[in-house]
Amino acid sequence: MIVAFSVTPLGVGEDVGEYVADAVRVVRESGLPNRTDAMFTSIEGDWDEVMDVVKRAVAAVEARAPRVSLVLKADLRPTVTDGLTSKVETVERYLSAE
């Protein structure tokens, strides 16, 4: 499964990068395949391990912010592994064929 999620602290002002970094640190320390961009962090693994990491990432932000917003999108395909890479490679392959 791949989960793309965004954790946003609320009530801490406009500069939230330090809080978001706390969440991303949890993801990176998990050892699961992951990727962070300007809007979301994606993580790949089985249901229990991915959801545990999301929960801990939210808790890391929650520890310092009075309120937290979580946006989560999941792709549940148990037969797919390395989806973070293979999905992008498929799109790139089609783009390079043009």
From TrEMBL:
It comes from the Bacteria. Pfam families: Thiamine_BP. It comes from Streptomyces macrolidinus. Residues 3-92 form the Thiamine-binding protein domain. Belongs to the UPF0045 family. The lineage of its organism: Bacteria, Bacillati, Actinomycetota, Actinomycetes, Kitasatosporales. This is MTH1187 family thiamine-binding protein. SUPFAM superfamilies: MTH1187/YkoF-like.
